[in-house]
């Protein structure tokens, strides 16, 4: 039995350590990505997020030309993520002929210089196609770079014609005067105002992946289980402790003897952590930072073992020998500990339930959308954007001109539409200074003439020609009063503003608008995914949009993806003619493209993703309920072990289960009830359900377990008598 127990304890400790290591790996990934983003931020910068691909080519050409006569180095950084996989951190270098990187801050991780001047100089000494680090082209690979296995990989290469620049480029080696001169040349060559590329207009946030959250939850569950297991085991040692003390042992000697195995396990976690780090962090030096990270990754697991030992050793150190032999132990500490552990498990359940409310609402909306959109299930919408066959991890807004140009070339093709609905509610009306009591909330249908023709809205040839020549056409319900129409014009003037953009339409050069009445009594499909919003609305203002009368808010939104946001819609026939076998339309020579998906397929895949999330949540909840059940059964077992004779006597006298285990019932029900009340206040439907379920299961578990084991105790005591 002792060997089996030690084997189980060893397995649990190793699993706790592995989950701790994985969480540490997740934090290392986040730390590395954030440090990479801030690296060289103190150097003069060019920001390319507002540049088109053509402008970027011009930018690189100007910098390359300037570098011919000035000693300088241009360094660009970009982050790419393989779907459900690692991050690829790439550094691109453009240098003056014969120039060397002599003075700049190296990029260090865990005390190892991942990118430094020696490696850049080594790269510059080879052909333009050469690179160091991550990549599949072994012919041009000249060396390796450190990497974190399955998490973060680095690549160092040279900026060549057609190179996909990152969002920023650092300039090294130029004086302030030379940098200003280069800025002027770039502005003149690209036609962009200098503020457009020396001011950062974009940013990004790096978050830990779902996999590491799962590892964290696993760590918590295993830690709670381990603590409970060691505590229950210590209570089983009480009688042995009493016997050993009467034989001359001190309590501290016995505790040291009993928990030496646990201490050995904790000490063994450090070399295990070192081996794990060596395997996962390839190419890193054994620096102080590296060793510190190794210790930090192992420390949570070590602390779990140490804290569990301290908690479980407390009753052994504080009990009197006679009480130990007779099994007499103060139960206050027992109830406090079990209440804390039980409360932690409940917090995880309630927190998870609150988190899952949003996905459940999304799933409900998705089912409603699937039914309401069934007429259009074969139509195609923008799903996502790709780069050379992989998921595009940059800012799609930077590529809006490419998709706009594609739409402009194909807007008159059969089956190519724009259809998007915005809901204008009271907050929006108030924000633009429009009285919602007069101009009540309404829907705005942004639609191409082809879509309006498809749904039966008649436009005259003259109106279509005006829209295609750059005039904004607004169709206003004939039920609107003159005052409402006036407020609508004010709202349009304030909301449909023209601002600087790479996409310039004839309307932006010569703004003109027309408001035309139409009969809206028939109602229009709202393309709404909200279960609380109607799928048909009669209070709709229609914006007739073409590639020539769009404002930036519309033209730059063509890259929007998903059911709610996608502007471009394709009929099945248009999709068959315009898309490749993967549903992708290539938009630029650098491999950037937009992927379309049928509405039916999109909803199916989205449902599958949510179902996988529900499955993951279900597994966690089952584990937590299992842990809660084990805690409750353990509480019953411990109380029975400490009060065998009392329980047997009370049972013979007719005491019920509730009176015998009233403290356990109070702890369990009070914690679950408080959590349920909190969920009611928060408004978490799933949390309320879980709270009620927890109350039901907990009371059933305690009642059934107590009934069965109590009868056994009565029979054992009767046999002794």
Automatic annotation (TrEMBL):
<keyword id="KW-0472">Membrane</keyword>
<feature type="transmembrane region" description="Helical">
    <location>
        <begin position="259"/>
        <end position="278"/>
    </location>
</feature>
<feature type="transmembrane region" description="Helical">
    <location>
        <begin position="290"/>
        <end position="313"/>
    </location>
</feature>
<feature type="transmembrane region" description="Helical">
    <location>
        <begin position="210"/>
        <end position="232"/>
    </location>
</feature>
<feature type="transmembrane region" description="Helical">
    <location>
        <begin position="613"/>
        <end position="639"/>
    </location>
</feature>
<feature type="transmembrane region" description="Helical">
    <location>
        <begin position="660"/>
        <end position="682"/>
    </location>
</feature>
<keyword id="KW-1133">Transmembrane helix</keyword>
<keyword id="KW-0812">Transmembrane</keyword>
<feature type="transmembrane region" description="Helical">
    <location>
        <begin position="688"/>
        <end position="706"/>
    </location>
</feature>
<protein>
    <submittedName>
        <fullName>Uncharacterized protein</fullName>
    </submittedName>
</protein>
<feature type="transmembrane region" description="Helical">
    <location>
        <begin position="334"/>
        <end position="356"/>
    </location>
</feature>
